[in-house]
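One thing: mind reviewing this one?
=====
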Amino acid sequence: MILKWNSKMLTAFYEIKKKDANFKKIFDEFGLPESRAIEKNFESIVKIIIGQQISTNVAKKIYEKLAKNNMLCEQALSKSNIEELKNFGLSAQKSFYIKNLAILSLNKHLDISSLDKLSSEKVTDVLLPIKGIGEWTINNFKIFALQDVNAWPSADLALQEAVKILTNLIRRPNQVEMEKLGKNWEPYRGAAALFLWHFYNKIKMKSSKS
């Protein structure tokens, strides 16, 4: 099922354009960010963990292999051993992370279906103690699954590179600088992040064709 941005996120896109002309510039050239919304479920967190610190293409291939073999549910992952999971292209660490997540979910120590009922801060409190789930993973889940309009994955390299290109900086801003920059875009930092990813992807596509 193809999911769409909800009304809050769509409103946030238009509000961030008013706050910063750079986002109007992106909109005028490339339009609104295409929907990349995902389900609010266990599989979505697994997908984001798989994507940690590897290229989008590599992550996609691993995810598709797991999906093809019906390995994206709690039951299958909890019963698998680390060596089996490594055969799909996962590292030993990520294999442990998603197996552990499956066990926590099966044992009702984690209720992913209830996360959308919590505040953004509480979502962080619930997920952060889980091995393999850090701020980047949490903020990506908030943006793409929970459609949190103010989540801000400041450590994301693609976001940092997008800011560098968009604002003509000499070097990519670091996480601390991105946190400061994000304050200018509250309470719509999630919408800002989606615009920046959208811009970065379009720029990469244009450069690959030239």
Q: What stands out?
A: The two ends are 34 Å apart (CA to CA). The CA atoms of residues 54 and 60 lie 10 Å apart.
